[in-house]
Amino acid sequence: MISTSAERANPVHARMMDRALELARRALGGVGPRPAVGAVIARGRDVVGEGATEARPGRHAEVVALEAAGERARGATLYCTLEPHAHHGVSPPCTEAIIRAGVTAVVSALQDPSPAVNGAGHRRLAEAGIRVVTDVPDRQRAEASELIAGFAHLTATGRPLVTAKYAMTLDGKLATRTGKSRWLTGAQARARAHELRAAHDALVVGIGTVLSDDPQLTARVPWAAEFKESRPRLRVVVDSRRRLPATAALLGTGGPVLWAVASPTGEDAPAGVATATLPGDHGKVDLGALLDVLGKRGATTALVEGGAALLGSFFDAGLVDRVAVFIAPAIMGGAGAVPAVAGLGVDEPESVLRLEHMAVEQLGEDLLVTGRIKR
Questions:
Q1: pLDDT tens across 240-264, in order?
Q2: Which of 157, 286, 163 minimizes the C-alpha distance to 232?
Q3: Of 51, 148, 162, 170, which sits with the fewest C-beta atoms within 10 Å of its C-beta?
Q4: Burial class (CB within 10 angstroms; exposed 0-12, middle 13-18, buried 19+) of 243
Q5: What is the pTM of this model?
Q6: Would you give the end-to-end CA distance of the chain in angstroms?
């Protein structure tokens, strides 16, 4: 039986699902093209097993939790942030593992939007006599949906969900007229920026940022020791004219680097760096083609950090889905200062990009504004 009635008031269900959502958040940025899923197995108020999605070809969250619970899973309830899958893919069906383990109830926050699942997992469990509960608080359902937003976008478009992230002053400046930008924001905002990096599959920057700041482009977060591989999993340098120096700091740290260039000729790629030649208009890299490449590499999400020219190009091309803007309580001034977003921009005020589903958070003295581009 699939139940959708009055379960959201159950405090045990709410607590266990919150823990499953927390586990899924930690998996973000490390498991694409899979969705980040969390699972908890409980007997009453006692947790007997838990887990999160592993990177391919690893286990799904439900199987990790079942193996942790062992025999204690028999007669227990499984809480999962996404519907268990019932088909044979890279991994065997999670539904069959749940049935074999003797779980008697499954509380699921969200139906899987993938055409290969899309309710089939819930039906299979119900047919096996397992009680399926899909009635969870709206807050938890919304969070579960956010956790798989990149997966759903990749499934629908073949491209990762793109977030434009940058820090600016109150007057919209990214750097001074001399090109200096460290540090516009405080420690709390910078820590959150590293969390954003850790939660995305790919991090994209322009060659100007590499040449001016020489960043490592890694995600330094307190729980980094839990990662089985580097975060972000892929760092991308957009470099139309092949200027990436072999001494760049990002080449000596973290994981794989993808060098996106526009010309097949020029400087050779530094050792260990993969190259994607993607010619576009005016000798620049075709950013749409780059997103296609990232999608084929399994990236569900991409964080574009700049600089201003690259951000402007992404906005001009209509390729940005979300924004994360850190705003420092400062005025820089100067006509020659670097704007946060360059490019061509729009011709008329009526054509400006606007946000929906906005959130504003204070981080020390700074603000973080997030939202989706309104289409």
A1: 999 999 999 999 887 899 999 998 8
A2: 163
A3: 170
A4: middle
A5: 0.92
A6: 39
